[in-house]
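Tutorial sheet, problem 5. The two components below are modelled jointly, 474 residues in total.
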Amino acid sequence: MALGEATTHDRLAQFLCSAAGARAVEIAEVRRLSGGAVQENWLVAVAIEGGAIAGRQKLVLRTDAATSLSMSRDRATEFAVQQLVHAGGVTVPEPLFLCRDAAVIGKPFFVMRWMPGAADGQRIVAGELGGTREPLAERLAQELAKLHKLRPARDALAGLGAPPADPAAARLRPLARFLEAHGEPHPVAEWGVRWLLRHAPPPATPVLCHGDFRTGNYLADESGFTALLDWDFAGWSDPDEDIGWFCLGYWRFGAYGREAGGLVPRAVFHRAYEAASGRAIDPARARYWEVMAALRWLVIALEQRDRFLRGGERSLQLLLNGRRPAECELEILMLTEPASEAA
Amino acid sequence: MRDYPDAATLLDFARVALLRELAPLLPAERQHQATLIARAMAIAAREAAAGAAPLAACHRALAELCGEGDLDTLLRRLADAIRAGAYDAPGAPRDQVERVLWAITLQKLSESNPDYLAASGVRQATQNGSA
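Model answer (structure tokens):
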């Protein structure tokens, strides 16, 4: 039972038919889309007769990859988040149907509308995709501000758990615990943990955050931004966390000097976000969350490496992530230097 | 006894052959894999070329700070001490630890991702004595 097999496609067609209230669904193409170490995305081209979305449709089916990360949400929760932000006006692919029944394709999944563009960070940062970088960054800041202004009812997003009283402490605790239990020494990461403990900001009121807001997780075509993707790390947090994550060195795709997603300098992005949100960004808090971002990516990279070394998942990409922590360690040391703190 | 060419030379040449001669023939969806293989080979080549000297230097710096023991033991001792808050307070011990952490990190990055290190501009800063 797997996508790519005819009997699975028959069951998928039946599911879509019933979910869309259609008379008939014919599947023209099912093809795995690139990217997605944690989730798999499949293009599903269909012809639908009758019902809510009649006609020829390009859909995207999103489901779990072979193994998952501890921090990643389940598909039902991601579907609920994506429905909510879509209704709230954030530009995302419209989520259509959720299937919790593992009997259809072997695991839960949801289906959303296909959107044009590509999420290729290299090409976006190189200016080959996404149009001019400054307006692209401005648009991203506007989308992020829109997200952070949503005030969803908590019970609509029960899968996210209760908002933490102190988002920074809630983020840091499991990272510190992971490092302590990991079995290998990570002194620079521990240095980062101590710095974060000493510099903890007054707790922010948690808002709905994307959790993985970065270049590589939005679609862009030749003229600019088309959609914000990958809501599987969404959660209640300090809005500055999304801003710090966006500025992490790794997500600059080689354009190190353009700190904000490899697109524009950090200050330009901050200004665009401030203009869109009406909320001033405190540079000390932004720095705090950039240190947290480096620490979090360090832990994720170790987790991914361990999927190879300890979990037996043979992927060179995962294995090479074992060499990513050094980049995060450099970021931690630079960002926590007293000289740069004063700057 | 080992015959020439050495590991670094072999890996370097093989990587260039992969990227220049083989990769262009691959379909678009496999290009990324060629890049990953080349990256793995580049890291291995740099480590082979550098030999044991960088690890010995790290070991010496750690030994000055944490006493006797093998590299892993000393790293563990340092990580435990940092976690316990032994270097939270400003002062000479914390400065010394910070210098060692910088040295370890620069050594690792110079092998794992020298491009990242160069782009960050850090190398120049440390040579000027700011870290």
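Marking note: The CA atoms of residues 52 and 82 of chain B lie 27 Å apart. Full credit if you identified this.
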